[in-house]
TrEMBL record:
<feature type="transmembrane region" description="Helical">
    <location>
        <begin position="442"/>
        <end position="467"/>
    </location>
</feature>
<dbReference type="InterPro" id="IPR010656">
    <property type="entry name" value="DctM"/>
</dbReference>
<keyword id="KW-1133">Transmembrane helix</keyword>
<feature type="transmembrane region" description="Helical">
    <location>
        <begin position="527"/>
        <end position="553"/>
    </location>
</feature>
<feature type="transmembrane region" description="Helical">
    <location>
        <begin position="369"/>
        <end position="391"/>
    </location>
</feature>
<feature type="transmembrane region" description="Helical">
    <location>
        <begin position="325"/>
        <end position="349"/>
    </location>
</feature>
<dbReference type="Pfam" id="PF06808">
    <property type="entry name" value="DctM"/>
</dbReference>
<feature type="transmembrane region" description="Helical">
    <location>
        <begin position="74"/>
        <end position="93"/>
    </location>
</feature>
<feature type="transmembrane region" description="Helical">
    <location>
        <begin position="204"/>
        <end position="227"/>
    </location>
</feature>
<feature type="transmembrane region" description="Helical">
    <location>
        <begin position="628"/>
        <end position="655"/>
    </location>
</feature>
<feature type="transmembrane region" description="Helical">
    <location>
        <begin position="161"/>
        <end position="184"/>
    </location>
</feature>
<protein>
    <submittedName>
        <fullName>TRAP transporter permease</fullName>
    </submittedName>
</protein>
<feature type="transmembrane region" description="Helical">
    <location>
        <begin position="565"/>
        <end position="583"/>
    </location>
</feature>
<feature type="transmembrane region" description="Helical">
    <location>
        <begin position="595"/>
        <end position="616"/>
    </location>
</feature>
<keyword id="KW-0812">Transmembrane</keyword>
<feature type="transmembrane region" description="Helical">
    <location>
        <begin position="136"/>
        <end position="154"/>
    </location>
</feature>
<feature type="transmembrane region" description="Helical">
    <location>
        <begin position="502"/>
        <end position="521"/>
    </location>
</feature>
Length: 672
């Protein structure tokens, strides 16, 4: 290889090592374990590792068999899925994150086996339970109690306290109804009724969320594990550096672009922040950004990854199941809002770089786009395969299987080529085993969250509290849409604090989306509204897990970082209101010309809002200029020809005034 070719194939990881002290792999894992409960898992050695590996392989084997054969009934599939999740959950996750991760106490083995046995009780006795539905034995009740309690403990370990406390509150509500005032009052239910409804009924733990998890979400998790092993995350960082690394404030723009791309396959705001932030945050600080701003850019962009189709942190699949609409409809609906969200952050990053006079990286620090794309662009093919089959109208399950098959074929083909060249093969049998292990481990947090959401949904269907909560929000707001939306926004942010993406959507949609639908708005828009604000809780003080994770890398003040991230993500606080009032933004009952107009006017509007908040375009803006820029931007984002014309005219005037020398404070000061 020539010197020129070596330079062309250089990755940003190689480059960053030479210009900044980046975090090593151990540091990254430590950040993840500290801020993401699902990452604090045990890494067993010796015989304990063999046991966990064999269980993981059996789990994946069962899931693939059930999908390919279609011979497993829905309830048996869901119960077996939960059985494996309970067993692996207690083997891999300690009772406390302060406990050593290289031990396996006997009580965890006992809890894992007990959880596995409780759910396998349904599988083994399925026909008997079906024949005597409603006539439950004392043993049935006891098994149900054990299964529910162990699910709660698994949730505490893997998904955290928020969803566990919310589910527990709903269970208490099922018993306490007769003593509660107002619309919370209900006749109450017996212990047996609550346990059997939650454990054995498909409206409880084994309801729609766990059904989606056990079928196609697992396959997409496995697909993500394949992509992770191929190194697509590093490719995203490299290609984004090739595109934007040389621009003003290059590393910050790279963070935005990388997070948007990683969001297409990732399922966690925190993991996105730590994964790409370990490279981009130190580079931003090296360039001249303050630590708070650098961490905020990464946190805001990484959080946006959860609203970026096609995967959206697995919420897209659950949304499709909940609403009974095709998955592709949800993915398409998320496109324009996601584009506007990332555009808003990108604009503010650009203006901040201009305001501070920051330059991009030098040419010798940036990988070349074409050689890089030609060398590693094939990594994008499996993602393209999934998108192609979804567009063709295939099911999410079929599309995921085709994506996995494409990953496997590419991995084998690349390895064969490596062997022919005399190089070390890129993938071997051990790599495929590690992919299965990763898939089995990554599904645990999602499955536990889905199971707990099933408890919430089960109590909602049992007591009818969902309709009452929606009616209550409407009553408090006196049926005024904007007030109802505001109250729903606040509720969704509070409910979403500290919850994983999947649990986040299931909680917010179950409890708050009904109020919006009750006012006659589009159901998909209502669910997207609740989901957006649940997700934005990851950067909204006081919890702001993604912002805090970013601040740990940047060594910045956590709350100052969270406030800055909230400012950068201002689009996420505006866009949901817009698509509720204008469902065309979600590609509902619209035309291509309307879509182009919506995107164009909204992007100009985001520029106005961003410039107003940053206080800079070509020069610093005066207070009254910032006021007009934000107001005009909001008018452009709102639907309507009149508001578009007024907003565009005002922004054009404000930009024009930037070129009037007499209004430039710096030039006036020099003149004086």
């Amino acid at each position: 290889m020539t010197e020129k070719e070596r330079h062309a194939s250089k990755t940003i990881e190689d480059i960053s090592d030479s210009i900044i002290p980046t975090s090593n792999e151990e540091d990254i894992q430590e950040f993840m374990k500290q801020y993401d409960p699902g990452s604090a898992y045990r890494e067993h050695q010796c015989w304990k590792r063999y046991i966990s590996v064999m269980i993981s392989l059996a789990f994946c084997g069962f899931q693939l068999y059930a999908t390919l054969s279609g011979a497993v009934t829905a309830q048996v599939l869901r119960a077996t899925h939960l059985a494996f999740v309970m067993l692996l959950g207690f083997i891999l996750y300690p009772a406390s994150r302060k406990m050593p991760l290289n031990t396996l106490p006997l009580y965890d083995v006992f809890l894992g086996i007990a959880g596995f046995s409780a759910w396998m009780y349904i599988v083994i006795n399925f026909d008997t339970l079906v024949r005597r539905t409603g006539a439950y034995l004392p043993l049935d009740i006891a098994v149900g109690v054990v299964g529910i309690l162990i699910l709660f403990e698994a949730c505490r370990r893997v998904a955290g306290l928020p969803i566990m406390l919310i589910a527990g509150t709903f269970i208490v509500y099922a018993f306490a109804g007769p003593w509660l005032p107002g619309f919370f009052n209900h006749r109450g239910y017996s212990f047996e009724r609550v346990v059997t409804h939650l454990f054995y009924n498909t409206e409880g733990i084994m309801g729609t969320p766990i059904g989606a998890c056990a079928s196609f979400i697992f396959l997409f998790i496995m697909f993500g594990a394949f992509l992770e092993k191929t190194g697509i995350g590093q490719f995203f960082i490299d290609i984004c550096n090739a595109i934007a690394g040389g621009a003003s404030g290059g590393p910050a723009k790279v963070a935005v672009l990388t997070s948007a791309l990683e969001g297409t396959v990732s399922g966690s705001s925190v993991s996105n922040t730590v994964g790409s932030g370990s490279f981009t945050i130190p580079m931003m600080k090296q360039l001249g950004y303050k630590g708070e701003f650098a961490a905020a850019v990464e946190a805001a962009a990484s959080t946006g990854g959860q609203i970026m189709p096609p995967i959206m942190g697995a919420a897209a699949f659950l949304m499709a199941e909940s609403l009974g609409i095709p998955y592709l409809t949800v993915a398409k609906a998320a496109v324009i809002p996601a584009i506007l969200y990332f555009s808003g952050i990108f604009i503010m990053v650009h203006l901040e770089a201009k305001k501070l006079g920051l330059k991009g990286m030098s040419k010798d620090q940036i990988p070349r786009f074409l050689p890089l794309f030609l060398a590693k662009g094939y990594l994008m093919l499996p993602l393209g395969v999934i998108i192609y089959f979804l567009i063709e109208g295939k099911t999410a399950t079929f599309s995921a299987l085709m994506g996995i098959l494409a990953c496997a074929i590419l991995g084998v083909a690349a390895s064969v080529i490596d062997i022919i060249r005399g190089d070390q093969p890129r993938m071997n049998v051990k790599d495929f085993v590690e992919i299965m292990i990763t898939a089995a481990r990554n599904i645990i947090g999602v499955a536990v969250a889905c199971g707990m959401a099933g408890i919430i949904i089960g109590i909602v269907t049992l007591t009818g509290i969902g309709l009452k909560l929606g009616a209550g929000l409407i009553a408090v707001s006196h049926g005024i849409p904007i007030i109802t939306l505001f109250l729903t926004m606040v509720s969704s942010i509070v409910l979403g604090m500290g919850a994983p993406t999947t649990a986040n959507y299931l909680i917010t949609s179950t409890i708050t989306a009904g109020a919006i639908v009750g006012l006659g708005f589009e159901p998909l828009a209502a669910h997207m509204f609740a989901f957006y604000f649940g997700i934005i809780a990851d950067i909204t003080p006081p919890v702001a897990l993604a912002a805090i994770a970013g601040s740990a890398i940047a060594k910045s003040k956590p709350m100052a970082t969270a406030v800055q991230a909230t400012k950068l993500a201002i689009a996420a606080f505006i866009i949901p209101y817009m698509f509720v009032f204008n469902p065309e933004m979600l590609l509902i009952n619209t035309t291509m010309s309307n879509v182009i107009l919506i995107i164009g006017t909204s992007l100009i509007g985001m520029f106005g809002v961003g410039a107003g908040l940053e206080g800079y375009i070509r020069r610093p803006c005066r207070v009254w200029e910032r006021f007009f820029l934000v107001g005009a931007g909001l008018l452009l984002i709102m639907p309507g020809l009149t508001t578009d014309i007024i907003g565009f005219a005002v922004i054009a005037l404000m930009v024009g005034l930037q070129y009037v020398p007499a209004l430039d404070p710096a030039k006036r000061a020099r003149h004086v």
